[in-house]
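Hey, quick one: can you model this chain's 3D structure?
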Amino acid sequence: MAWAEKGIGNIDFPLASDYFPHGEVARRYGVQRLGDPIPGINERSIFVIDKQGKVVFRQVYELGELPDNDEIFEALQKISGAAA
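Sure thing. Here's the predicted structure for all 84 residues.
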């Protein structure tokens, strides 16, 4: 929520989050951190999934690294049919 509110602003796409101890989605996408330095959290990652359920963008970032909003918006524009 903080990223949406402070980083990218209001968007018309749903966002999802998955956290320990639940983490089923994170496990399935291979981003749940089980070891050091902080077991139980997820890797900082972004997946863009189209309406057919296909992953069209996937990026994993270092924990201190901020995502590149432009590349994410580009992936969203591609699946929405919007002009760049």
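One thing worth noting: The longest strand covers residues 55-61.
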